[in-house]
Amino acid sequence: MRRFLVAAALFCISGFAAPAAAEDAFHGEWQQIASNAGECPSCRITIRQTGASLQIIANNDWTALAETGDRDTASGAGFWKRGTRKTYSGKTFNIRMRLNTDDELLMKMRIEPIQGKSRTIQGVFKRIERLAI
Length: 133
Description:
There is one protein chain. The chain is mainly β and 133 residues long. It is 12% helix and 53% strand. The protein is built from one helix and eight strands, in the order αββββββββ.
């Protein structure tokens, strides 16, 4: 949880310092097209980008904050919503993302240990809509 709070603080601080002509490489709606956690054609994420800061909201009960490392990479932390029946309910995670040359988003989510064992979920997302900034 502490990692998420640090990421949230960085997101707030960097949002105010971001230049007006911010990069928007990640900004938009993305649909999952592959995952090692199983197929989910209805799984989507919304990424709102302000400069180097990313707010990531998934329609399957997780959210994250990240910072871009360069135009094509980002990393941060997040959590799965508490109170759901999902395996990861209330768990925190680290997230890394990279854009490839096909405008696909490659995601790695390393979830905090469950019964002493951590899990890494890898997913591929295709952009379905660019959002207006």
